[in-house]
């Protein structure tokens, strides 16, 4: 299967037609290149705030509510594009005020299939900025999505840096890591996390990045990154674990073709079996023996 992951710049779209046109062009380009799964980054939905004007987009709280209100229409658009171009789409995440989860927003990604099905995944562990001043909250539980491309899991940005979350999704074939990072160091933290989760679970991880200057919105501001597709550095995969990567801060798609059989093979007969041997850590890490050397 062919994967496409985005280094995606926000645009201060003025009208719904502008947003529809932009998103359609991105999806059409990836689909025309044979991609079956398209991954957009964390907080890519923040460009929807500009539909309510620059004053709303520039105010943190107002922009959160604006994007949440536009998310219903954005979902309809993504569902239509997934069906029309016969692709799976991980839509760019954004704030959603879900009454079932309380008065504050969650950071929600949505996965659309060509058949019209949709799954949602909320961010689990929030960054310091998302806690304050954004005052977002963790959302619903981790999920594994059974699709025609295989089992898919999603760890949104910071979530990808936590191995126990990755372990909870160790049965997935594809682990999607949409990200939004301001500094180069943040990009590398998430990338190292994505590569580590691919190593531990012997799967393929797919990282998408928000890129560019969007100072008209506090959530997006200035972002750094590129698209990357990673696997375990073992049989059937590159020795570096890097299947494909884009140029830093260069907008566009990064593509890679992945054979699901290679994932099954490395799990069954890799040079190492990290996923199988995970449980052997139990009892060896707790308690840790202390020994004084003087």
Question: What would your notes on this structure say?
Answer:
45% of the residues are buried. Helix 1 links the parallel strand 1 and strand 2 (37-39). Strands 1, 2, 3, 4, 5, 6, 7, 8, 9, 10, 11, 12 and 13 form a 13-stranded mixed β-sheet that branches. The protein has a single domain, classed as Carbon-nitrogen hydrolase (Nitrilase/N-carbamoyl-D-aminoacid amidohydrolase). The protein has 8 helices and 13 strands. The chain starts with a strand and ends in a 17-residue tail after the last helix. The protein is globular and about 60 Å long. It has 294 residues and is an alpha/beta fold.
Give a short synopsis of this structure.
The chain is of the alpha/beta class. Helix content is 30%, strand content 25%.
What's the layout of helices and strands?
Elements: E1 2-9, H1 16-32, E2 37-39, H2 54-58, H3 60-84, E3 88-96, E4 106-112, E5 118-122, H4 128-131, E6 144-147, E7 150-154, H5 163-168, E8 174-179, H6 184-201, E9 204-214, E10 221-223, E11 228-230, E12 242-245, E13 252-257, H7 260-269, H8 274-277
Helix pairs in contact: 1-3
H/E element order: EHEHHEEEHEEHEHEEEEEHH
Annotation, overall tally of beta strands = 13
How would you characterize the largest beta sheet? 13 strands, mixed
Total helical elements: 8
Instruction: Give the proportion of residues in helices.
Output: 25-40%
CATH superfamily: Carbon-nitrogen hydrolase
CATH class bucket = Alpha Beta
N- and C-termini, Cα separation = 57 Å
